[in-house]
Design goal:
By secondary structure, this protein is an alpha+beta fold. Helices cover about 30% and strands about 15% of the residues.
Length: about 425
């Protein structure tokens, strides 16, 4: 799991700042995404409206962090003016995400953006990952990295012949690219191109279908980077998603859902998105009640931790009172086992308590190990007492110390 945290905002204070906003229900969102995925129209009602305006699933894979919100523009996106997303559709599918990530967020199609939400501009489309962070023109132009500089110019400006169809792109890929995404060209789909934007986007999808390697690597859209001053609650986020495999994405999606709700008062569902493992398979989008960290009513859902209270306890090792988080688990929490089970319990603790000053006194570096240690040697206790002042340790060191490792224990072990 990737560094989740809880923003220190009470629901009462939040209600004073912004009214609770109910998005489409989780079930309705899953149905909408499925319909968007299955809609393979070449345009959105007229030959000047590219398909991405109304169908397909546009999403961005993200990595949650303590240092930024997943929906914030990255430094690279701000610098270049463009942000990378992918487009998933029944006839434009792939089996993995960039860097094998496993969670992120999905945008409403432009024509379906609800009132009060900001819209966005799609600039160009690459049938496969185009390595756009080092390209000109907001990521749509030629490669500007070290070598081969200047290669990968837009498809319409390729020499000696322009590339305008999917077959031409596939032929070019086979002859000149061969896995080096710096040599790929992207199709311009800017709004002012009108019917050419429709033709170019359809050529990009055709190229993806005609290139066998494309199933094993995500495609890429470049969108205009939204302003960092855009209120988070106005962003056109349709859902947070996670992939069941590789594991770990569910906790991160829940973290993003809860953080977004606490910052904006806007509830957005978590959707389980499964990518096809074979070309004959289809992606699926499912709503699971157990995947939500925040209920549709706006109430945080507590599954594993029944209660937890900070109490000062005398510690014989240090000879003074130390802060201890006295944790009582629910029946479901007590049933958790293995790394995935302890991860789920720990994720809930982090979401609730990591911003408390008691937790922060030592960065909480040893809390995860203490929780695992209690599961191993003290599972039957009514309460787990976890102390932030304790250092991180190996599993053997923690168990040898009865889950109560002291800094001096580690010092002695290295002498």
């Amino acid at each position: 799991m990737k560094k989740p945290q809880l923003w220190a905002v009470s629901l009462v204070a939040l209600a004073m700042q912004a009214p609770y906003v109910l998005a489409a229900s989780c079930a309705d969102t899953a149905k909408a995404l499925t319909a968007q995925y299955n809609d393979t129209r070449d345009n959105c009602g007229k030959n000047t409206s590219p398909a991405f305006l109304c169908n397909g699933v546009i999403f961005r894979a993200t990595v949650p962090s303590d240092d930024y919100s997943s929906w914030d523009p990255s430094p690279n996106s701000v610098k270049s003016g463009g942000t990378s997303f992918s487009y998933l559709r029944k006839d434009a599918k792939f089996s993995r995400l960039v860097r094998y990530e496993n969670n992120g967020y999905i945008l409403f199609p432009v024509q379906n953006v609800p009132p009060g939400k900001s819209t966005y501009n799609v600039l160009c489309a690459f049938p496969m990952d185009g390595g756009t962070d080092a390209r000109e023109d907001k990521g749509c132009g030629a490669w500007t990295g070290s070598k081969p500089s200047g290669q990968g110019a837009p498809c319409y400006s390729q020499q000696p012949n322009r590339i305008t169809t999917g077959q031409e792109w596939a032929d070019h890929y086979k002859a000149f690219v061969n896995g080096d995404n710096r040599r790929e060209c992207g199709f311009d789909v800017r709004d002012n191109l009108n019917s050419y934007a429709v033709d170019n986007f359809n050529a990009s999808l055709s190229a993806q279908r005609r290139t066998p390697e494309a199933f094993r690597k995500q495609n890429e859209l470049r969108l205009d980077t939204w302003k960092s001053t855009t209120p988070a609650g106005e962003l056109p986020i349709q859902a947070f998603f996670y992939l069941p495999e590789p594991t770990g994405g569910r906790d991160d999606a829940q973290f993003d859902q809860q953080r977004y709700y606490e910052k904006t008062g806007v509830w957005v569902p978590v959707i389980a998105m499964t990518l096809p493992s074979r070309l004959s398979d289809d992606a699926t989008f499912k709503c699971n009640a157990d995947d939500q960290a925040v209920a549709e009513s706006g109430k945080p859902i507590d599954r594993y931790v029944k209660s937890a209270t900070w109490v000062p306890r005398f510690d014989p090792g240090t000879g003074q009172n130390e802060w201890s988080l006295s944790v009582v688990l629910t029946d479901l929490g007590r049933k958790q086992s293995g790394s995935a089970g302890s991860d789920a319990v720990y994720a809930e603790l982090v979401r609730k308590y990591k911003n408390d000053y008691q937790w922060k006194q030592n960065g909480g570096v040893g809390m995860r190990r203490q929780l695992v240690c209690h599961f191993v040697i003290a599972r039957g206790k009514d309460e787990f007492n976890l102390e932030p002042f304790r250092p991180d340790a190996t599993e053997a060191e923690a168990e040898r110390a009865g889950c109560n490792v002291l800094p001096s224990d580690l010092t002695a072990a290295t002498q």
